[in-house]
Amino acid sequence: MTTTNLTIASFFCPTTVHIGAGAARNLTNILEKFHATRVFIFVDDALKTAPFMRNVENDLKKASIKTSTFTGIEPDPSATTVESAYHLAQAFSPHVLLAVGGGSTIDVAKAVGILLTNGGKIHDYEGIEQFNIPALPLVAVPTTAGTGSEVSGSCVITDDKQNRKMSIRHASLNPARHAILDPEALTTLPAHVAAHAGMDAFVHALESYTSKQANLMTDALNMQALALLSHNLRDFVADRSNRQAGLNMLVGSALTGMAFGQTGLGNVHCMARFIGAKLHLSHGLSNALCLPVVAQFNQSAATKKYAEVARIMQVASRNDTDDVAAQLAVKAITTLCRDVDIPGSLREVGADRESFPGMAADCAQAGYNRWNPRQTTEADFIKLFEAAF
């Protein structure tokens, strides 16, 4: 069951997705589609010497594909990093870009792909559809199950001179051409990174599903994503070598990645933007810290959808009223956070109350009321930060 508004909507996803354990061994066949003999690789530092990456490099070598590799990509990647990678890639003249890593690595690859065909600086393309020449083709192999960057139409780059995040969005020209969802790429992921990334994906699905801009297509994707993520996150965090749990997490992350760029997100992401910047926390952890209080705040404005979330998470039945089921969803969401060792309060990660008014003012100006199901004032945000503290 799903409920959504009847506004005319559209849905689009240009990425071809390859799914399954060992899917990355099909990489050279994918590159053949582009007649690629020169590939510029972006890879997470933690994977440089991992067996998975060695297999990728060996497969490329056997196919006589020349490569150049860029590493050293930081969390919340900077425009300076993008510029450095761009100059190296430009000198190499690749036919295709390959990103093997988490959301930061894939976002840098997207940004470089834009610059290689459009020129200029990445700042020139901040906003929605600020470029119209297709980026250089990108093949993405996510090594975390969280951001959905491989299929989303956005990349986020930090302007390190002004200390602000820039979102570069283009639904048709910014996603990877091909995404390879291979659980073999997840096996070396530390447990806490798996938990934070997985909670990020869960928040994407929940906020996209309950967004004011949701439609029947995005609902279908997000309902399946919520099921895959909530039923597999605990098992995956406990054992990253669990291939089935890993694959389910990757698919859940990608499904909601296809949706949230078209529905927008809500108060969790709004608050997490400023929490993460203030406390220098990962995006996934920042989201997870804000999730329980925002879920409690929003459920009264999206009761039917929260009730459906409870049934998807298997903590409520059709015999429960929507009001009861919606409250059970909030409890289940809070329990999920605790079960994967998310700290129980902002206090535990070093937050201070003095920063709340300023962050609340920033949240109120950020414009998330376009998507969040419940209208939220600056005073409401102060209360939410206090509740999370």
TrEMBL record:
Superkingdom of origin: Bacteria
CDD domains associated with the record: Fe-ADH
Domain Fe-containing alcohol dehydrogenase-like C-terminal residue range list: 195-389
Residue ranges the record marks as coiled coil: none
Xref: Pfam families: ADH_Fe_C, Fe-ADH
Record-linked InterPro entries: ADH_Fe/GldA, ADH_Fe_C, Alcohol_dehydrogenase_Fe
Keyword Cell inner membrane: no
Family named by the database record: Belongs to the iron-containing alcohol dehydrogenase family.
Name the UniProt record assigns to this protein: Iron-containing alcohol dehydrogenase
